[in-house]
Amino acid sequence: MPKSRIRKKADFTPPPAAKSATDIRLSNRNWVAPVMLAMFLVGLAWIVMYYVTGGDLPVDALGSWNIAVGFGFIAAGFGFSTQWK
User: Fold this and answer.
1) Alpha carbon distance 83, 60 (integer Å)
2) pLDDT tens digits for 16-45?
3) Taking the model in full, what pTM does it have?
4) How far apart, in whole angstroms, are the C-alpha atoms of residue 20 and residue 24?
5) Total Cβ atoms within 10 A of residue 15
6) How far is it, in rounded angstroms, from Cα 45 to Cα 38?
7) Dist CA 10 CA 5 (whole Å)
């Protein structure tokens, strides 16, 4: 008796998916990188100005808290960096 042919199974092809919501661009985030860099630079300039002027500038009334303000700007820059795509 002749041997029967072995049928090859067709490879699985998933059905075409409908467009998902992620394909739609919801917002334009071109502003994030410049704002992030600006925050970094403002924070750095704030701290450098505090040290160079001996604590007289940028805000004399804050005293050593000027360091915290500078690091606050830098932290805000890192916060904006999470939104950058």
Assistant:
1) 34
2) 876 655 555 657 788 999 999 999 999 999
3) 0.66
4) 8
5) 5
6) 10
7) 15
The yes-or-no verdict on residue 2 having pLDDT over 90 is no
How far is Cα 33 from Cα 23, in angstroms, rounded to an integer?
22
DSSP code at position 62: G
Residues in the chain, overall count: 85
* Amino acid letter, 28: N
Chain-centre distance for alpha carbon 18? 29
Dist CA 83 CA 54 (whole Å): 36
Q: What is the DSSP string of 20-56?
A: PGGGS-----TTHHHHHHHHHHHHHHHHHHHHHTTT-
CA angle 64, 62, 35 (to 5 degrees): 90
